[in-house]
Structure to design on (926 residues):
C-alpha cells in the first residue's frame, strides 16, 4: 500500500489526527504561607509526586551477570534515592573489567526471564515502575537471525581514473554471500548526460577481475555493492549480540518482537502490560542501512519509475554534473530518501507501536539516530506513546547559537515535545545526563542546570543515564558501562533525593497540565533530503539558525513548536490559527524552505486565506522535490506561494535571514512586526534566561530559569493573567506561598540568582501580597575566620582530622589534593547582636549542610550557599558546623592502579584537579 499522510495519521495513535529555597526575589520575605486546606490533587501531586513523575534509572544489566538477591538490593537503593522506576537495559560488560563475578545469563533464556519476573515483583513491592528495552545494546539484533533477516545496505566507491589508459580492477572482495557487486559504471567527469556512462558489469570475470579501456580525460569508476550482516549490535549482551536486524522488513521486525513477547509471557504474565509499563527502543543507529530486498519494487510502486538507472549517481553527494542533470539527481535523491523513510515508518515504527499495544504496553521510542534520521523527525515522534529525546553532559552543543556549559540539548527535545503537544501525550521523556567525558565531575548542581534546560524545551520526565548493575564484590568504583556516576559509592548519593524531589515536583506539574505555544516553525527537511539524503548533520544545521529560533523567540516571551507537512496538510485553519489536536498556533515561520509538495504549499495558502500570519525567512518555496511530473508540480507550488504573497501582503511576508550573533535582537524586531503578543513580556531578554508556560484549568503556570552559573538576572515580567494571584511553588521543599507583588498582580519584578528557577502559579482566588521585610545589607558583614577544625571522612580509608588556620581549596594542598568524601568544618564565633542575618559560605565545592548551635539550617546543593538566620543565633559565642561533600574526580585521578578509574578519568575533558571543600569566605551579612 502506498504510504500517504492521511493513512499515517489514522495509524499513529489514539486521537492524533483530530483530536527553591534561596535568596528572596524582592527584599526579605515574611514567610507568609497559605492557610487554607490544600486538598486539590494538582498541588498534592506537586507536594507528593507520583512515581510516574519521578526520574527513572536506565539500569544496565552489565553482561547479564545478574542475581536475584543483588537485583533486590539495588532496587532498594534506587527506590531510597527517590527514583520512580527503572529501565532494564542488558548490555555488554566493559572489556576493561577482568575476572567478573557471576555467570552471564543469556537474554530470553528461562533463567533470564525469571529474573525479569523477579524484578517486576520487586518493583511492585517497592512502588517502582519497570520498563524493558527491546533486545540488548542497540540497535537490536542477534546471532539467531537468518541471513535474510539481517541489516542490508548498498555502498558506493568512486575512483578517479585519467585516460587514455587500460585500467584493471580487482573486485573479488565483493563476491561473497554477504557482499556482492551490483553495478560497475564508468562516467566522464564532469557528467553532462547519464547515457554517457559505460556499463562494465558484464566484463567482470568469475574471479572478480575486470579490465577496460579508459578514453582520454578524467573519468570516475562507480563501484556499487550490496552488503548484508555488515553491522553488529553495539554492546550487545549474551543472547542478543550479533548481526543487526533488517528494520525495513515488517515480517522480520514482528518475528523479532514476537520472539520477545512469546518468551516472556509464560513467565512474567500473559499480558505484559500488567507487569511492565513500556517497551523501549533506543536511538536508531543503523549506519549503512539503506536497502531491503524489495526496495526496487517498492520504489517503483511509490514513485512511478525505476531507481536502477540513477542508483550509483545519487549516492555521490559531491558529483560534478551539468545543472539540468544536477536537478534531476536531486529529485531522485529525494525520492530515494522519501521511500526509505516511508518503509521505515510503516515497517518498523508502526509495527513496533502495534506490537506494544497488542501486549498492553506503552511504546517508548527515540526517533533520532546516527548517522541518519530515518524519518522526518517529527513524523517519527508522532507515533509513540512516550516520545523520548536525549541530553549529554560535558558535550558541546551542535549549534553555534547557544552553548550552555557543555550541556547538549534542545534539538531532539524540541521535536519530541512538539510531537507530544500535537498528539496530547502526557509524558515527554528524555535519556538524560548521558556522560562519557566527565564521569566523576558531574555535581548535583550541574544536574539541576541540565534538568531546567530539559523543562524549558518541553521535557517532563527523565530516564537517567544511568545506574550500573554492579555487585559489592566488584569493588570501587564497580562495573561502569556509561553515564553519570549514579552509584552508592558517589559521595553525593545520600543527597540525590533532594534533586530527585526537585525534578519530580516539576515533572508532576508539567505532566498534569497543558502546554501552550503560539509559534509554529517549519524547516527545510525536503531540501535537506534532496541535497544530502537522510544524513542528520545537514538536517541539524540547515539553516544554521533553525534550531536556535525557538530559543530566540523564548527570550522574548514566545513559545514555539516545530511542525511539518503532516501537520500542515491535516490541520484546520480558524480565525488566523493553525489547529491540530489540542494545539493552536497563531503564526507560521517557514525557515529557508525552497522545496514543498503542492499539498503543503496549498495548506499554507489555505492558512493565509483564513487570516493566518506566515513569515518566509530567507527564501520562498518554489519547487517540488520529486521527479515525476516535476514541471507541473513545480508550477503548483509556485502558484500557491505567490498567491499567498500577493493576495495577503499584510499577513504573508518575506524577511531576510538573521546574521550570526544577532539572532535574539533579530527575533525581537521581527515579532514586533507581527500581531502576536507574547505570553509573558520580559523587559530584559537574555540568552541564558528561559521560560515555559502551561495551563491547568484556570491556573496559569510559568516556569523561569536562569541558566547562568555566575550572573543573576533582574527583569520586569508582565503577564496576561489579569487579577489572578501569583503563587510561588517551591520544588525543593513542596511549600507554596503568595509571591510578593506591589500594586499590580500581573507585573512582577523578578530576580533570579545564578542557576535559580522560579515556578509561578496564577490562581483566581484573591490573596493579599505578603509584606516584605528588609533584606540584609550586603555591604555590612562579619567574616568568620576560624580557626577551623575539620573532620575528614574519605570515600575509602580511615577518617582523620586537621586544623586549618584559614580556609583553602583542598586541590591546592598537596596532601589533600586527592581527597573525596565529606569534610566537616567547625568553629566558634561571637556576634554583638542577634538580629536577622544572612550566612554566606562563599565558594563551596560542592554540597553544604549547615548546623548553627546544634540547629540545622539545611542543605544547599546548587547556586549560592546562603542561609537565612532567624532565632538560631545567640548573644556571645556561637558554634558553626559546615559539612561539605566533594566530588570524586580528584580521588579517582589519583588511583593510578585502578584500571576502571583511569579509563574514565582519561576520557574527561578536564585533567587538572577540581576545586574541593569549603573555600569561602564565610560571612554573616546584617
Amino acid at each position: 500500500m502506498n504510504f500517504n499522510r492521511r493513512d499515517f495519521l489514522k495509524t499513529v495513535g489514539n486521537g492524533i489526527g483530530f483530536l527553591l529555597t534561596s535568596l528572596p526575589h524582592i527584599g526579605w520575605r515574611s514567610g507568609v504561607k497559605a492557610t487554607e486546606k490544600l486538598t486539590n490533587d494538582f498541588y498534592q501531586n506537586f507536594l507528593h509526586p507520583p512515581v510516574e513523575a519521578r526520574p527513572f534509572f536506565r539500569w544496565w544489566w552489565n553482561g547479564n551477570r545478574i542475581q536475584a538477591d543483588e537485583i533486590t538490593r539495588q532496587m532498594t537503593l534506587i527506590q531510597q534515592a527517590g527514583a520512580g522506576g527503572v529501565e532494564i537495559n542488558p548490555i555488554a560488560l566493559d572489556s576493561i573489567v577482568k575476572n567478573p563475578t557471576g555467570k552471564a545469563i543469556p537474554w530470553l533464556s528461562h533463567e533470564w526471564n525469571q529474573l525479569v519476573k523477579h524484578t517486576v515483583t520487586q518493583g511492585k513491592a517497592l512502588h517502582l515502575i519497570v520498563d524493558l528495552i527491546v533486545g540488548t545494546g542497540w540497535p537490536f539484533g542477534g546471532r539467531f537471525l537468518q541471513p535474510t533477516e539481517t541489516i542490508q545496505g548498498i555502498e558506493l566507491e568512486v575512483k578517479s581514473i585519467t585516460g587514455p589508459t587500460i585500467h584493471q580492477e580487482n573486485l573479488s572482495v565483493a563476491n561473497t554471500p554477504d557482499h556482492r557487486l551490483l553495478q560497475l559504471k564508468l562516467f566522464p567527469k564532469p557528467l553532462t548526460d547519464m547515457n554517457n556512462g559505460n556499463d562494465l558489469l558484464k566484463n567482470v570475470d568469475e574471479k572478480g577481475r575486470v579490465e577496460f579501456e579508459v578514453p582520454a580525460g578524467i573519468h570516475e569508476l562507480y563501484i556499487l555493492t550490496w552488503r548484508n550482516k555488515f553491522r553488529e549490535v553495539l554492546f550487545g549482551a549474551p543472547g542478543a549480540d550479533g548481526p543487526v536486524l533488517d528494520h525495513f522488513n515488517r515480517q522480520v521486525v514482528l518475528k523479532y518482537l514476537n520472539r520477545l513477547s512469546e518468551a516472556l509471557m509464560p513467565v512474567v504474565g500473559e499480558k505484559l502490560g500488567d507487569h511492565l509499563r513500556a517497551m523501549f527502543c533506543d536511538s536508531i543507529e543503523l549506519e549503512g542501512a539503506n536497502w531491503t530486498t524489495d526496495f526496487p519494487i517498492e520504489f517503483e510502486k511509490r514513485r512511478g519509475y525505476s531507481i536502477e538507472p540513477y542508483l550509483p549517481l545519487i549516492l555521490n553527494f559531491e558529483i560534478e554534473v551539468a545543472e539540468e542533470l544536477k536537478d534531476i539527481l536531486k529529485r531522485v535523491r529525494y525520492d530515494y530518501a522519501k521511500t526509505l523513510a516511508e518503509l521505515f515508518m510503516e515497517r518498523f515504527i508502526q509495527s513496533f507501536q502495534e506490537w506494544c499495544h497488542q501486549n498492553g504496553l506503552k511504546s517508548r521510542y527515540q526517533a533520532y539516530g546516527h548517522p541518519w534520521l530515518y524519518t522526518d523527525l517529527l513524523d517519527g515522534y508522532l507515533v509513540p506513546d512516550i516520545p523520548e529525546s536525549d541530553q549529554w553532559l560535558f558535550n558541546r552543543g551542535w549549534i553555534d547559537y547557544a552553548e550552555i556549559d557543555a550541556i547538549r540539548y534542545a534539538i531532539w527535545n524540541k521535536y519530541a515535545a512538539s510531537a507530544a503537544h500535537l498528539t496530547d501525550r502526557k509524558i515527554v521523556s528524555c535519556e538524560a545526563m548521558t556522560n562519557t567525558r566527565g564521569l566523576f565531575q558531574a555535581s548535583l548542581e550541574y544536574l539541576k542546570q541540565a534538568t531546567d534546560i530539559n523543562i524549558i524545551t518541553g521535557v517532563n520526565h527523565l530516564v537517567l543515564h544511568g545506574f550500573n548493575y554492579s555487585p559489592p564484590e566488584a569493588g570501587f568504583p564497580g562495573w561502569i558501562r556509561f553515564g553519570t556516576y549514579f552509584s552508592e559509592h558517589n559521595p553525593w548519593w545520600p543527597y540525590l533525593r533532594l534533586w530527585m524531589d526537585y525534578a519530580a515536583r516539576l515533572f508532576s506539574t508539567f505532566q498534569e497540565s497543558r502546554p501552550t505555544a503560539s509559534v509554529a516553525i517549519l524547516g527545510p527537511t525536503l531540501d535537506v533530503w534532496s541535497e544530502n539524503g537522510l544524513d542528520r548533520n545537514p538536517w541539524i544545521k540547515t539553516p544554521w539558525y533553525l534550531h536556535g529560533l525557538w530559543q530566540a523567540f523564548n527570550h522574548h516571551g514566545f513559545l514555539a513548536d516545530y511542525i511539518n507537512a503532516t501537520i500542515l496538510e491535516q490541520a484546520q485553519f480558524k480565525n488566523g490559527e493553525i489547529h491540530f489536536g489540542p494545539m493552536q498556533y497563531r503564526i507560521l515561520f517557514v525557515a529557508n524552505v525552497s522545496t514543498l509538495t503542492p499539498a503543503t504549499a496549498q495548506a499554507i495558502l489555505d492558512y493565509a486565506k483564513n487570516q493566518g500570519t506566515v513569515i518566509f525567512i530567507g527564501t520562498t518555496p518554489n519547487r517540488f522535490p520529486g521527479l515525476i511530473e516535476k514541471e507541473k508540480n513545480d508550477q503548483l507550488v509556485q502558484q500557491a506561494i505567490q498567491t499567498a504573497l500577493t493576495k495577503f501582503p499584510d499577513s504573508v511576508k518575506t524577511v531576510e535571514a538573521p546574521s550570526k550573533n544577532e539572532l535574539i535582537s533579530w527575533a525581537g524586531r521581527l515579532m514586533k512586526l507581527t500581531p502576536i503578543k507574547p505570553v509573558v513580556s520580559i523587559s530584559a531578554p537574555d540568552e541564558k534566561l528561559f521560560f515555559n508556560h502551561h495551563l491547568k484549568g484556570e491556573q496559569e503556570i510559568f516556569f523561569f530559569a536562569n541558566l547562568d552559573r555566575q550572573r543573576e538576572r533582574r527583569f520586569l515580567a508582565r503577564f496576561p493573567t489579569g487579577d489572578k494571584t501569583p503563587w510561588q511553588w517551591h520544588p525543593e521543599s513542596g511549600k507554596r506561598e503568595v509571591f510578593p507583588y506591589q500594586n499590580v498582580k500581573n507585573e512582577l519584578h523578578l530576580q533570579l540568582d545564578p542557576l535559580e528557577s522560579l515556578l509561578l502559579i496564577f490562581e483566581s482566588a484573591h490573596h493579599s501580597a505578603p509584606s516584605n521585610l528588609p533584606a540584609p545589607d550586603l555591604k555590612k558583614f562579619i567574616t568568620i575566620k576560624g580557626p577551623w577544625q575539620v573532620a575528614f571522612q574519605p570515600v575509602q580509608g580511615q577518617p582523620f582530622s586537621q586544623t586549618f588556620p584559614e580556609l583553602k581549596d583542598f586541590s591546592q594542598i598537596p596532601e589533600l589534593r586527592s581527597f573525596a568524601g565529606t569534610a566537616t568544618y567547625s568553629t566558634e564565633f561571637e556576634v554583638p547582636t542577634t538580629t536577622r542575618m544572612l550566612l554566606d559560605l562563599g565558594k563551596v565545592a560542592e554540597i553544604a549542610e549547615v548546623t548553627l548551635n546544634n540547629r540545622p539550617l539545611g542543605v544547599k546543593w546548587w547556586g549560592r550557599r546562603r542561609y537565612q538566620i532567624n532565632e538560631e543565633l545567640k548573644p556571645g559565642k556561637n558554634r558553626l558546623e559546615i559539612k561539605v561533600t566533594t566530588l570524586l574526580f580528584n580521588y579517582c585521578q589519583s588511583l593510578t592502579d585502578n584500571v576502571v578509574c583511569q579509563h574514565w578519568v582519561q576520557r574527561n575533558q578536564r585533567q587538572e584537579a577540581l576545586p574541593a571543600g569549603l573555600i569561602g569566605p564565610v560571612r554573616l551579612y546584617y
Q: What stands out?
A: The first strand starts at residue 28 and ends at 29. Residues 1-39 have pLDDT under 50 and may be disordered. The chain has five domains: 50-143+238-287+360-512, 152-228, 519-672, 681-772, 781-925. The radius of gyration is 30 Å.
